[in-house]
From TrEMBL:
<dbReference type="GO" id="GO:0008179">
    <property type="term" value="F:adenylate cyclase binding"/>
</dbReference>
<dbReference type="InterPro" id="IPR001837">
    <property type="entry name" value="Adenylate_cyclase-assoc_CAP"/>
</dbReference>
<feature type="domain" description="CAP N-terminal">
    <location>
        <begin position="45"/>
        <end position="144"/>
    </location>
</feature>
<dbReference type="GO" id="GO:0007015">
    <property type="term" value="P:actin filament organization"/>
</dbReference>
<protein>
    <recommendedName>
        <fullName>CAP N-terminal domain-containing protein</fullName>
    </recommendedName>
</protein>
<dbReference type="Pfam" id="PF21938">
    <property type="entry name" value="CAP_N"/>
</dbReference>
<dbReference type="GO" id="GO:0005737">
    <property type="term" value="C:cytoplasm"/>
</dbReference>
<dbReference type="InterPro" id="IPR018106">
    <property type="entry name" value="CAP_CS_N"/>
</dbReference>
<dbReference type="InterPro" id="IPR053950">
    <property type="entry name" value="CAP_N"/>
</dbReference>
<dbReference type="InterPro" id="IPR036222">
    <property type="entry name" value="CAP_N_sf"/>
</dbReference>
<dbReference type="GO" id="GO:0003779">
    <property type="term" value="F:actin binding"/>
</dbReference>
<dbReference type="GO" id="GO:0019933">
    <property type="term" value="P:cAMP-mediated signaling"/>
</dbReference>
Amino acid sequence: MEEKLILRLELAVVRLEELSSGFRPGGLQANGGDAAALDPSIVAFDDLMAECVGRVSSAAEKIGGQVLDVTKVVAEAFSVQKELLITVKQTQKTDMAGLAEFLKPLNEVITKATALTEGRRSDFFNHLKTAADSLTALAWIAYTGKDCGMSMPIAHVE
């Protein structure tokens, strides 16, 4: 019972942090962003974050140190992914010229996670490296078809 309550509280904190930061990709208006945030797929993504990322976060808090640091970066990456999903929901067609700018927030978080693996090797190096390397799977959002130069998103899962 306590773990579920802690998980719900952590999700609420993440949502409040997102709201307080005022982050609106591409200058989106609040009304359009709110409507997209209520989309069933976005709500399902929120549920996934609450269940899975929340569970990992609570375990990382018990361990602390670098494991907690990298877990916070992973949670941040999923929050950025959610914002990108909302942006995609509001976009009619993908603009290939703006794709790099679109993915910039996600790239910055992945770079932050990779930076945690550099320098002196810690006892948790494998954990840090695995977390950092796995974040590249979140780039599936940029897949626009066979001719985009990326493998299909299913390849990340395999």
